[in-house]
Design goal:
- Belongs to the iron/ascorbate-dependent oxidoreductase family.
- This protein is α+β, with helices and mostly antiparallel strands.
- It has a single domain, classed as B-lactam Antibiotic, Isopenicillin N Synthase, Chain (Jelly Rolls), CATH 2.60.120.330.
- The protein is built from 8 helices and 17 strands.
- Strands 2-3-13-10-15-8-5-4 form an 8-stranded mixed β-sheet. A 5-stranded mixed β-sheet has the order 1-12-11-14-9, with no helix packed on it.
- β6 and β7 form a beta hairpin.
- The longest helix has 26 residues.
- It binds N-oxalylglycine and nickel (II) ion.
- Nickel (II) ion binds next to loops.
Length: about 350
């Protein structure tokens, strides 16, 4: 990707609201160290839950309710694992474009490398490397998730796989704490993630001469259940504050993860925990890397509000059931093919009440 701003970028950028960023009111910072001393309780009404853990569950519930986003520290993921992924990412994205494109995604296989140029995606200023934990092929062969590993750097595969295994454990803990915060048994949601369709991405944002005209990633919501994102020290992630709709820049905190509720938790919780819009701004001088892990259920899962959380009279289900595999593949392929067409959204499954 060159450093000239393509006029098409500018044209697309005109449809965006001008960035306004508020430094006041940051997303909640949550210390997970109580989990180093206590197991996650299985039953939310167990009277023997230590205070430290009750407070943690309450803090997570409040963060999901008020922000849909929070940052965690003392999360149990070894920093060395992330540093190795950052090192291979740096090496990979520094390769010549032809080399990177040897592992590029295409219409059938959604995984591998892509940049905004060859997908003709004029909306975002980024390049990406995507992979999954479990490969997948649709019955009719029209959609495939097959990992493509580059020859260079040779350590890329091992670094990513070891990192993902550790982050997945963190994601399970967070999903259990979120379940408890909804007054559900800790493991209520775990079954959906067996053979899960977790998706791992490395975003690389080159420096951009006109950061006010383009965004690294335009405003969007994450469609999975939960995102666990590592950002580097450059910063650029903006979150839409629920209380007033202002964009708030998330301050980089060393060795922390940014967690956000995705659309599936919004549907499961029947809109109690909303999936919140966010975007990534770019920097004039510095390149930036961000590494999201999208924790998502098995493709065969039919997503709908959890029965325990709805009642016909007081809180009727607000969504019709939808199939996650169908939803995911349709979004991925429409992203690739026709960029101005509207993606499938959870709002399409909203019931008229
Ligand atoms: C994403 C995303 C934000 C960032 O990849 O879904 O929101 O900071 N990235 O790169
Ligand atoms: Ni996102």
């Amino acid at each position: 990707m060159g450093l000239e701003v393509d006029p098409a970028f500018v044209q697309a950028a005109e449809h965006r609201p001008k960035p306004t960023i508020s430094d006041a009111g940051e997303i909640p910072l949550i210390d997970l160290s109580p989990l180093l001393h206590h197991p996650i309780p299985s039953d939310p009404s167990d009277p023997s839950i230590p205070d430290e853990i009750s407070s943690l569950i309450a803090a997570i519930g409040a963060a999901c309710l008020d922000w849909g986003f929070f940052q965690v520290v003392n999360h149990g993921v070894d920093l060395k694992l992330l540093e190795r992924v950052q090192a291979v990412a740096r090496e990979f994205f520094a390769l010549p474009a032809e080399e990177k494109r040897r592992v590029k995604r295409d219409e059938v296989n959604a995984l591998g490398y892509y940049d905004t140029e060859h997908t003709k995606n004029v909306r975002d200023w980024k390049e990406v490397f995507d992979l999954v934990v479990r490969e997948y092929e649709s019955d009719d062969g029209s959609f495939r998730l097959r990992n493509q590993w580059p020859d260079h750097p040779p350590a890329m595969r091992e670094a990513c796989e070891e990192y993902i295994a550790s982050v997945e454990k963190l994601a399970y803990k967070l999903v259990e704490l979120i379940a408890l915060s909804l007054n559900l048994p800790a493991k209520r949601l775990n079954g959906y993630f067996r053979d899960s369709s977790c998706f791992f991405r490395i975003n690389h944002y080159n420096p951009c001469p006109s950061p006010d005209l383009v965004l690294g990633v335009g405003r969007h919501k994450d469609s999975g259940a939960l995102t666990v994102l590592a950002q580097d020290e450059v910063g650029g992630l903006d979150v839409k504050r629920k209380s007033d709709g202002e964009w708030v820049r998330v301050k980089p905190i060393p060795n922390s993860y940014i967690i956000n509720v995705g659309d599936i938790i919004q549907v499961w919780s029947n809109d109690k925990y909303e999936s919140v819009e966010h975007r990534a701004s770019v920097n004039t001088e510095k390149e930036r890397f961000s590494i999201p892990f999208f924790f998502s259920p098995t493709f065969s899962t039919n997503v709908k509000p959890l029965e325990e959380l709805v009642s016909d009279d007081k809180n009727p289900a607000r969504y019709q059931e939808y199939n996650w595999g169908h939803y995911f593949s349709s979004r991925l392929s429409s992203n690739f093919k026709k960029l101005d067409k509207d993606n499938l959204q959870i709002s399409h499954f909203k019931k008229a009440l």
